[in-house]
Predict the 3D structure of the following.
Amino acid sequence: MTSYYKEKLSALRLKKCYDIAPPRVQKYLQAELDHVLQKITSNDIVLELGCGYGRVLSQIATKAAMVIGIDNAYSNLILAKKVLKRYSNCCLLTMDAINLTFRSHMFDFVICIQNGISAFHVDKIKLLAESIRVTKANGYVIFSSYSDKFWEDRLEWFQLQYKFGLIGEINYEKTQNGIISCKDGFTATTIGPEEFLSLTSNFHIEPKIVEVDNSILFCEIKIPKKDFDQS
């Protein structure tokens, strides 16, 4: 499934998904971004996992000292370079989120929003472990997913994406309980509070689960001062 975003839903096609978002989805997208932005200061070094075409990075760059975006789709990064051309504090790299080549304790914030923890279709424990590893003591790792309350609006958004030929026809027999399934093999899942807590229980950390705008579920992890060990 990771190849779907690289081969079928990257760069301008990915941007189109956000351009056609209906008003309620636009409100959700802004609320998600605002929640993250209010935490970042002018001294922070921020890493975004799965930065796509730079939609989020272009906003973070206005607040942070330095922002680094990684993505495994090179076409995304080509477009992101154009989107971010006026920002001198941005760096873009082709990299897998479960195999980061950064040194440990490097970032003040590691951000993986827009349901990346599900959309990446990678080992979630490895994703969390790498995110935590590269974050400084007292820094934050922030993941997001969808609230159950946002189901109808989310489904409408995916229906629009199908209408515009961006994803396959929705398989309504398999589309339920937070899962959107398409007949071309595309699947979009979510992470709920219990699963976030279960995943983070593998580490000596205490996550904070926050719901925002009746649409977004955040898992916020403050890295303790002493190094963690996977239990």
Summary: Strands lie at 45-49, 66-71, 90-94, 107-112, 135-146, 180-181, 187-188, 208-212, 216-222. The chain has nine helices and nine strands.
